[in-house]
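Tokens as discussed.
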């Protein structure tokens, strides 16, 4: 992320006319792209399972501990 911050800062200091173009780029391209990534991450885990007979299914989106005696 620091590399992008540096590049944006450099564009701003090189020519102040770039400010509006940078704002437009962020508003029109980057904000929607980041929103799409965030939405995708929220729905990233989808699990389905099927068991029959005496079968068992254990699913976890993260840590799981199973204690059977």
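Sequence:
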């Amino acid at each position: 992320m620091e590399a992008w911050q540096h590049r944006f800062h450099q564009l701003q200091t090189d020519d102040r006319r770039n400010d509006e173009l940078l704002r437009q780029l962020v508003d029109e391209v980057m904000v929607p792209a980041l929103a799409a990534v965030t939405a995708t991450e929220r729905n990233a885990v989808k699990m389905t399972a099927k068991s029959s007979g005496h079968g068992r299914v254990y699913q976890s989106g993260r840590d799981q501990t199973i204690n059977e005696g």
